[in-house]
Amino acid sequence: MDHQIVGAELVPRAEGKRRFRRQILADWGHSCYLCGGSPEHLTLDHLVPRRAGGETCRSNLAPACAPCNRRKGCSELWSHWTRSEHWNQGRALRLIRWLLAAATVAEDTAAGPGGEPTRDPGAAGSADPLSDV
Ligand SMILES: [Zn+2]
Would you say 58 and 106 are in contact if contact means Cβ atoms under 8 Å apart? Predict the structure, then answer.
């Protein structure tokens, strides 16, 4: 399930994580990057799943509605998306621009908006508020 934000309330940098999350949602206009829907609750999808080595950083996260996030699961993004009914080239281009912009920001500043929100050394395996399904 996608209850990413719950665990964040318990950690000291919770506010930073909330801002980090809110900023990503705002940058996407609060819409799902896969289907374009704007449900009340959006999850943050790891473009490259964590278990495939994907990091919890701006360049690897995008808002997804819960059904899309669930459907994608741990699938490889592009092969999943291009075969799905929600494939849309306009949104794909938007995602590519997002990746380029996020990569540029990552190079310019060591810490993204809200600092380094989720990389706690030695915390592997602990509850990650932004984790995938
Ligand atoms: Zn969706």
Answer: yes
Q: How far is the CA of 54 from the centre of ligand 1 (A)?
A: 20
Rounded distance from Cα 25 to ligand 1 centre (Å):
13
Residue pLDDT, tens place only, 81-126: 999 999 999 999 999 999 999 888 777 655 445 444 544 444 444 4
| Residue 50 structure tokens | 């964590």
Ligand 1 mean position, distance from CA 36 (Å): 6
Q: Which domains, from first to last, does the chain contain?
A: 29-100 (1.10.30)
